[in-house]
Amino acid sequence: xxxxxxxxxxxxxxxxxVTASVAQRALKKKKSDVRKSTKQWPxxxxxxKPALPLVPQRVDPDPKPTVTExxxxxxxxxxxxxxxxxxxxxxxIPHGGTRLMLLMVLIVVGPGAAVMAFAPVRNRLTAWxxxxxxxxxxxxxxxxLTLWLHVWNPAASLGGLAAASLLTGAVQAVRLTRSGVxxxxxxxxDPDQPPAGRLTRWLPLVTLPAALALWIIAMVRTSAxxxxxxxxxxxxxxxxxxxxxxxxxxxxxxxxxxARPLVxxxxxxxxxxxxxxxxxIVSGTVEYAWTYKHLGVVELIRDNHHLIDxxxxxxxxxxxxxxxxxxxxxxxxxxxxxxAWSSLACMLLNALMTAALARQFTANRRVIALTxxxxxxxxxxxxxxxxxxxxxxxxxxxxWVIVIRWMTGPPARVGRLNRWLTRDMPExxxxxxxxxxxxxxxxxxxxxxxxxxxQLTPVMMMVPLVAMAVLGVLRPRLLVVVLGxxxxxxxxxxxxxxxxxxxxxxxxxxxxxxGNAKSWSTPEQEFSALVARALAIGLWAxxxxxxxxxxxxxxxxxxxxxxxxxxxxTLAGGSYGGEAIYRVYAFSLPFTAxxxxxxxxxxxxxxxxxxxxxxxxxxxxxxxxxxxxxxxQSRVNVVSRGDITAAEYLYAHAAPDAGxxxxxxxxxxxxxANYGSYNKGHVSVDISxxxxxxxxxxxxxxxxxxxxxxxxxxxxxxxxxVVSDSMDRQTTYFGTLPAGSLTSLTDGLSTSTDWQVFYKAxxxxxxxxxx
Length: 771
Description:
By secondary structure, the protein is mainly α. The chain is 60% helix and 3% strand.
């Protein structure tokens, strides 16, 4: 029987549905108003996204490991085991390339993966960037410490790292398995991907292989001797330019279409391959004559097991050199055999770090992918060549990943200036004290590895750190004090060496920013320089426009803007040998790329074909500009095998305590461990006639008497003079000598009784001054 209801109950039954409906509509309207007022990023990456705000993402204040597919600790435990096993197996197999590759797996993955096996970082991109950075930082510690303590033993050091990584990973893998943690399931596709037609689906899968095929064809048809005065890109010809267009169109079609992670990743890997592998494949040698000085330092440490000259600026910052000396010693390979691939390896690491850095600001994978792409294709400064700066650059990016993710937020105390600068900076969940301490410790470890490896990088990092601390954005501020102590403690005893070679604290910011503009003397040099400068200024201006758009809510772009533009202030400290402006560009590029990417890809993902094709051609043009800045001087920068052979002969047979004089600074000097035995008093710089005002612009056979007097005044017991075709190419490209000067000089030297031939081969002659 039906239950009887009171009149009040009847009224409630009639009114309740109407009331609920009204309440639901009111609640929906309220939520809509809240979304419009806060303007937060939607979680669905396929939905419409405004170009701004560009703000650090919220983090879990104290993330707990859970049995979910986002828990990647077991993945890192397995990676630590594999990397540790690779390091141990490497010492059991014969010397060679296989041993080197196994050791590289250990150094790049092992120790960091062991640490990340205990860290519940839920984002895999962030976690892998941390693993690589911590591995590289931890690996340099035993190299430097054993060097300073005179207990150098590379095999034991790498074996200890391998064993520690393997055991730590194995123990943690057992613990996690017993506690119920299972393998994470990587998501290779996105359930929110919009439907697409056949052309949108298949076009990127066709253009990417076609671009790579055309690139390979262009390289096969080119040799190092074919490189023209306008650089390698113009020499590779039309097929290469078509390859750039196909790569750009394919990538942007995918980016503004389905944005499949695997396809975007393939495009991102193709860019550094084309930009950094072309020269080593075509030439087969290590690029840039000045790179060979770094090979000599590595061999010195490898062969002597300790540092020799406390006045040598390279030996005072031994981190990079000691690490590579360990690799060279244990692998049995000379550094010259693998140094040519340094740029490619470093740029691949930089791509990972840049993507992880962008992830701290946005979850929009289109913005993340485009940021990584722009940072790669616009890097006309070869930041990754075989040098300390190539080692520390990805560490610097990883350092900022840590700081932005766990150690930044709106200031607690807001003054008038802070209120304006941090306007609309969203509140973030405060990480626990333990989480901040762990993040601070990781940041300090990475910073210490940078400090012992490079002079300029930690100083440039401190500038935005101090600014963030003053604004109250950095938490805790004590991090600046700790890092400052680390920097000063290492730098103070070495300031004399730095100030003796570089002008510091001259506060002439405009002159230091001019680079080499005053020395442009030929159309070829001017063309490459102008293209590179136009690219840099265009990116800086576009990023500045993004900041201007957010002028009423600067807090949404504050952190990215500080990191993009504050490095410019370091130009007040000096020109760093004329290269300071290039370092400023390289350090600001990831953040300017992020600001530009928010304008380019931060809005509606579904674009017309006009937009996709136009964006692809624009990307291709940017990549060509980056390549022109990077490879426009390849005719000068590529070092011939003949020059390398001549240099090796010189350092193997020249008399000790001799002077080695170059006509022009384009010869691979100091490539052997005994480089300190020559040019004493000038160890860190080459002695070059072109560069000295006494000879620049005027050196030929008529100056032989002046040349003899100049050389004898150095008071070396024996003197050698190097003349080569590469020097002729350099002086012609830069316009530092009239045409035919070196031919005239060579003719005069060959008939002079004061000079005798010490070594002669096609393209290079070394003379010895007769006592």
